[in-house]
Amino acid sequence: MIEDAPLVGTGHVPGTDRPVEYRLVPTWDGLYTPVAVCLPPGEGPHAVIVLAYGNGGGGLPWVRDAVERRDLVIDRLLAARFGAVWIDYRTEVELGYHRGGPLLRDVRSGGELFSRSPLEFEDERAVVEHLRTRSDVDPDRIGAIGASHAGEMLLKLASGWDGLAAGVLAEPAAHEFLALRRHEGESVERLDGSGVEAIRRRMDLAVATERAAAIRTPLLVMGRDGDPLQAVFRATYDLLTEVGADVRWSSHAHAEHGYVVPERTADGGWVDRAGSEEAITEAVAFLDRHMAR
Which structural domain range is residue 257 located in? Predict the structure, then answer.
């Protein structure tokens, strides 16, 4: 229920009268993660898109900044009659998903006992589970857009859990999900790979295939022409295709990493507003196809 997620502030989408609620949503271990909720006019229940970008750990200031500086995607979602929910989550743990295994929940001395700490993608699931309890949100029409690391988070989230109606993976930095073997000290931002086949040779294909085969959520994978990780983006799509997932591929030539959830420049403008709006329109159309009634 809404009461379970304390209201800690309100505001408006920049340049509009559309209200924004800032809330703290309880995660599985009893801590809280911040969200910014903006819904279309009317009582609903509304279809809602969860928005995420990057590695997490920014807290409430981060979601406030996302509303102020990454508002173009909010504006376009509202225009399409979707609610928009910007989220943050705990900081990414290097290889925590790959090494930690599934989170097992048990009981000890009347309280919960976990096999490991929850990870950032499980905070996103906690947010989705919270949104389902709201009377102004349609629980069957919750989708997500995740950019960069948050795109990989959607893969982790959808592997074995069918709680989203659809998802958009924008430039998914999926090295961990794909179980890529990395050289010592190698940066994940610039993996040593000359193309998709070079990336595939570095994958633990059995592990990656098992993870991908458990996905039932329709997905759109969006790459970026010329990006150092474009081969990773495409290898992700290819793997999903091979296991029979409901998946589509698109790629855009854009100067900005995170172009589907673009950030305002210092002067308040955009690196390439037309290019971002084209990509957002494509993402919204994909989500709408899987969430329309």
Answer: 2-88+123-291
